[in-house]
Amino acid sequence: MTLDLRFTPEENAFRKEVREFIAANLPQDIRDWLLLGHHATADMLRRWTKILNAQGGWSTPGWPKSAGGPGWDPVRRYIFSEELQQAPAPSPLPFNAAMVGPVIFTFGNEAQKARFLPRIQSLEDWWCQGFSEPGAGSDLASLKTSAKRDGDHYVVNGQKTWTSYAQYADWIFMLVRTNPDAKKQEGISFLLIDMKTPGITVRPIITIEGGHEVNEVFFDDVRVPVENLVGEENKGWDCAKFLLGNERTGIANVGLCQERLDYARELAGPRSREPMLRHEFAVLDAETRALELTNYRFLLSEREQHALPAFASVLKLKGTEIQQEAHALVARLAGPAALERLEASGAEDCHLVQRYLFSRALSIYGGTSEIQKDILAKSILG
User: Fold this and answer.
1) CA distance 334 to 329
2) Which of 31, 94, 256, 345 has its Cβ near the most Cβ atoms within 10 Å?
């Protein structure tokens, strides 16, 4: 089957609308901070989320209108993400917009939807993800954190690790084992836990670039109301599979690859005409364009209801590699200035070399590169 890889006039008009909105509403200090290679600070993300949310629920681009979102199809969600990354502007907090929110409006009851969804959308509640544990990362179903029923509460004991932004979080969504005698994927439940509950301890993990994004979180006899169970007890693996599918969507970050390549050209200046550097730019540009085309094929095949198998793994695998190459190129071109650490009030971030070092994690989270290769081998080779 031949796919028409062109965007429709309506989709091109939507891109223009998004681009003009970002240009008119993105605070300049946020754009300048991201352009230097930083992640948005917590304060920046909260400010930008409020601006997006006021624009018809743009802070949750994947949500249907029935849940308070804009009701965009996959192509419009992709266009929106691409324009944010190329501006550059902060993307919505994924733990809120792409993970726990969709789980609640898909599996949650009406009381949970009314209580949590508006606060998720506005970032009034900051969420973090309690999935990975020591010994249960890629093999997530091996988790051991337990939740035992005690009247109207679950009593939670265990440990989560690599928990991004737990130091900011108001709530954590967790996978816990409620039936220790069941098979690995069975006996797991999905709980929502207030981070202010007694018995929760957050310890920072300082990563290779000296930053504090991830944490260990310990649970010692933490009492969680049964009403915070999402879906059925012992059926949490259904929620987990659904959530992980959302997590891996768009992880190629084509717009970010393009933005970093443009920034590398800017840093190079007259050096960009040197033969070796011209060759490097040409290779990276070709790879980015190929990634973009692959992403288009995936999106447009979905639009025409002919989704192509294993494309998500291709996008994640190759997108990760290109992002790492782009961060390395930017850091190298910046020279000694790339080693400078720029401090900002409340910032837990780093400059160009530190950003390159942090990019090594891209091939781990959201499904390791090795896992993606296994998926591709099974899909293509059988």
Assistant:
1) 9
2) 256
